[in-house]
Amino acid sequence: FELGLKRITEDFGFKVKEYPTTRKLGASAQDRARDIMDAFADPSIKAVIASIGGSDQLTVLPHLRPEIFKANPKPFFGYSD
C-alpha cells in the first residue's frame, strides 16, 4: 500500500485522498460503501482506486446507491490477486 501511494504521488503526481475505511481492517460493508459513494459524489475526485478487492467486495454491492454513480460517473479501478 505504501509503495503504491508513493508511486501514485511521486511518479505520477496525483493527489491522494484516503477515506475512513482505507486502512481500517474489518471495516463493515456499509462503511466501505459509504466511502465509495462519498468519493464518487465528491467533484474534486477525478478517479477512484480501491485498496481492497476480491470476492469480499460483493458484500458492498447491496449497500450502494446507483443514482450516485449515474450522477457522478468517473473511472473506478481496483485490483485483486
Question: How is this structure best described in words?
Answer:
By secondary structure, the protein is mainly alpha-helical. The protein has three helices and two strands. A two-stranded parallel ribbon has the order 1-2. α3 links the parallel β1 (48-49) and β2. The two termini are 14 Å apart.
Query: Cα distance, first to last residue?
Result: 14 Å
Task: Give the class from helix and strand content and strand pairing.
Answer: mainly alpha
SS element count, helices = 3
Main beta sheet: 2 strands, parallel
- The Cα radius of gyration reads 13 Å
- The percent range for strand residues is under 5%
Quaternary class = single chain
Mean pLDDT: 91
The order of strands across the largest sheet is 1-2
> What is the H/E string?
HHEHE
Principal-axes shape call = globular
Instruction: Give the proportion of residues in helices.
Output: 25-40%
Quick overview of this protein structure:
Helices cover 36% and strands 5% of the residues. By secondary structure, it is mainly alpha-helical.
Q: What are the defining features of this structure?
A:
81 residues, mainly alpha, 3 helices, 36% helix, globular
Could you outline the blueprint of secondary structure elements for this entry?
Elements: H1 2-11, H2 29-41, E1 48-49, H3 66-71, E2 76-77
Parallel strand pairs: 1-2
